[in-house]
Design brief:
The complex is a heterodimer.
Chain A lengths: L2 E14 L3 H8 L7 E14 L3 E5 L6 H8 L7 E6 L2 E2 L5 H10 E4 L13 H11 L8 H11 L16 H13 L5 E5 L7 H18 L2 E6 L2 H7 L2 E6 L2 E7 H6 L4 H9 L37 H5 L5 E2 L5 E2 L41
Helix pairs in contact in A: 4-5, 4-6, 5-6
Chain B lengths: L11 H9 L3 H18 L1 H4 L40 H37 L1 H15 L3 H12 L3 H28 L2 H8 L4 H37 L11 H9 L8 H28 L6
Helix pairs in contact in B: 2-4, 2-11, 4-5, 4-7, 4-9, 4-10, 4-11, 5-7, 6-7, 7-9, 8-9, 9-10, 9-11, 10-11
Classes of the chains: A alpha/beta, B mainly alpha.
């Protein structure tokens, strides 16, 4: 597999600038300082053509920011990103447009991801007509085709967004993205605002569209059930940094980072009843991250080394990387849990595993 | 492949009109406003006298009560003022000036202010800071003061009054348009439009502007009414329009000297005309705001 999108050292800072009053007070001996948040901090990542790469983490860990950087909506403040081997910062004119179009985004909230003033037809046909992918005269037929691709009746073309349900809007948003013939679809929590019954339908549609359009996905989610259903590889993020990357089935069976393990333990499941075991403590403030390993205040395995030395991402065998000093010592998520008769998820084929509590099948 | 289904645009204007008339109070406003506009347009036909033509005035007719017959042989429906000017004629011609100045100044201010506001919101950074500090600076003065200063410098004249009112009012539009556009530009569909590779002008005019219009609409209705009131105030104060082109404000001002001597008609009737004009604009503006919000359940 070749790398379609390659990120190296990508970072995104958000700075709260000093206002004039603070600057003047500083001149008079005040000590106001700019506050900097590293929403995304030195991420190296490659997305291969045709794969489904899941990006998982708690809210506020920077996964949406990273998704927007990949989609070209937000500029990164450091690092380089290349698309098909070319640095996107150096692209200009039609080359740049081709890159921007090639990576499309599906947003979390379908209530705000469609222009409320444009009909479904206008929403889907605007960009491709603008880019001359098809002509205005061809548009009705093309739009009808795209609508049926996403499982909507072509009659929906006349509707306005406020006349559609959340699931229907999300389908329209996907059709809108597909209309410009993208290669990569960044799905930012694309199912989490939907009814659970609709979530499964949309997820399965993503898989069908992947085959039909030869798409590559960056699938951002905090829903491990959905991730297990669709992902080939999983990236775990914590406080703006990547802490583990692994093929999906390996990751679910044997996490190499204590944070991954904690996430797996937290995920609600139907198979067995067990005590809910939340991750200890709060996410540290990204304004003032902890020393050493960012996860050490919440980590059950933390040692003195973790408090002082920040672990780097290192290979831990079998196509996997993890940022933990003790990656090899992390126990599987089921080791501590009471044994049960239910089959463990790791034993199933990940791509076809039935969805658990988050998304019951409804087709 | 089957034939493409019939995808047509809904007849928007017609639907819009149908929705508009569903509010009785808005229809009343519209009827009043249209009537006043027609009256203004047909001024020479429906008024017995040209109040600007000094030759038609007769001092013998001054201060006639409503309904009395003057020397020219016709009934002065609403009486005359102290120079023998027919009040009804003065109102009709005054409406012309007031409407023209109000719509002209309000419209120009809306275009300039909205453009500045949306541009500031879209560009952000230094451009936004500079433009918005300018707006703050402007808004820290009362509009009437700005207009008075402008007119003191420029001198009288319809074009100068419009210019002064635009200077006094654009900042209100800029501030409203910017905040509306800021809210919209944070929404995902704008990010999506960037991602789809649409050009910045397409995003501004096709996405940001149409969604910022409802907020601007409310301000526009109020500001056109305000422009009319401001102009009336300026005329009342004796600034602005030349005496030969009396607007409603000047007619009211002329009669004002006599209100305590019981000659109410010189002030009350033009006053009513002004109130009706401003009120009808506000009613229409309210309804437009409701209709232009697509999320509103009608």
């Amino acid at each position: 597999m070749t790398a379609l999108v390659e990120l190296s050292g990508i970072g995104r800072r958000f700075t709260r600038k000093l206002d004039v009053a603070a600057k003047i007070l500083n001149l008079l001996g005040g000590s106001y300082r700019e506050q900097v948040v590293h929403a995304v901090d030195g991420v190296d990542l490659s997305i291969s053509a045709g794969e489904v790469l899941a990006l998982v983490g708690e809210s506020g860990c920077g996964k949406s920011t990273l998704g927007r950087i990949v989609a070209g909506i937000l500029p990164s403040s450091s690092g380089t990103m290349s698309f098909r081997g070319r640095d996107v910062a150096a692209l200009a004119g039609t080359d740049r447009l081709a890159w921007v179009r090639s990576i499309q985004m599906v947003f979390q909230d379908p209530m705000t991801s469609l222009n409320p003033r444009k009909s479904v037809f206008e929403a889907i046909s605007e960009a491709p007509v603008y880019h001359r992918i098809f002509s205005r005269a061809e548009a009705p037929a093309k739009v009808a085709r795209l609508l049926s691709n996403v499982g909507l009746d072509p009659q929906f073309a006349n509707r306005m967004p406020h006349e559609l349900s959340g699931g229907q809007r999300q389908r329209v948003a996907i059709a809108q993205a597909l209309a410009v013939k993208p290669e990569v679809l960044v799905c930012d929590e694309a199912t989490s605002a939907l009814d659970v019954s609709i979530q499964a339908q949309i997820l399965n549609m993503f898989l069908e569209l992947k085959e039909e359009f030869g798409l590559t996905y960056l699938f951002i989610s905090h829903n491990l059930g959905a991730v297990r259903h669709v992902a080939d590889r999983v990236v775990i993020m914590y406080l703006g940094q990547v802490v583990e990357v692994a093929p999906a089935d390996d990751l679910f069976a044997t996490p190499h980072h204590p944070y991954t393990r904690a996430l797996l333990l937290e995920a609600p499941r139907l198979e067995r009843r067990r005590r809910f075991e939340p991750i200890r403590g709060e996410i540290p403030s990204p304004l003032d991250p902890p020393s050493g390993c960012y996860f050490h205040p919440r980590c059950p395995m933390a040692t003195d080394r973790c408090r002082t030395e920040r672990p780097i991402l290192r290979e831990t065998g079998g196509d996997r990387v993890a940022a933990c000093h003790y990656a090899e010592m992390v126990s599987p998520p089921d080791a501590l849990a009471p044994s049960s008769e239910a089959p463990e998820p790791g034993h199933m084929k990940p791509g076809r595993a039935p969805l658990s509590a988050e998304a019951p099948r409804s087709e | 492949m089957t034939a493409a289904p019939d995808i047509t645009r809904p007849p928007r204007l017609r639907r819009f009109a149908a929705d508009f008339v569903r509010s009785p109070i808005a229809v009343v406003g519209l009827v009043i406003f249209v009537t006043l506009c027609i009256m203004a347009a047909l001024a020479p036909l429906i008024s017995p006298q040209n109040p600007y033509d000094m030759m038609t005035l007769n001092l013998m007719d001054s201060r006639l009560r409503p309904g009395e017959v003057g020397s020219a042989g016709y009934v002065h429906l609403l009486g005359t003022d102290d120079q023998g000017r027919d009040i009804w004629s003065a109102i009709v011609y005054g409406l012309r000036i007031s409407l023209g100045v109000g719509l002209g100044a309000g419209g120009i201010a809306a275009v300039i202010g909205t453009s500045v506001g949306i541009f500031a919101a879209f560009r952000g950074g230094m451009v936004e800071t500079v433009l918005m500090r300018l707006v703050d600076f402007q808004l820290s003065f009362p509009a009437i003061l700005v207009a008075l200063i402008m007119l003191a410098v420029l001198g009288p004249g319809v074009d100068k009054v419009i210019f002064a009112l635009v200077i006094a009012q654009w900042a209100y539009f800029a501030r409203t348009a910017r905040s509306a556009a800021l809210v919209e530009s944070r929404r995902d569909y704008i990010a999506g439009a960037h991602s789809l590779g649409l050009g910045q002008w397409r995003i501004i005019f096709g996405h940001l502007l149409p969604n910022s219009v409802p907020a601007v609409m409310v301000i526009a209705a109020i500001q056109v009414a305000n422009a009319i009131l401001l102009e009336a105030t300026l005329s009342f104060l004796g600034m602005g329009l030349p005496v030969t082109e009396p607007s409603l404000g000047m007619v009211i001002s002329n009669g004002f000297q006599h209100i305590l001597s019981g000659r109410y008609w010189m002030t009350i009737y033009p006053g009513i005309a002004l109130v009706l004009l401003v009120l009808s604009l506000n009613l229409i503006g309210d309804r437009l705001r409701e209709l232009l919000d697509p999320r509103k359940v009608l």
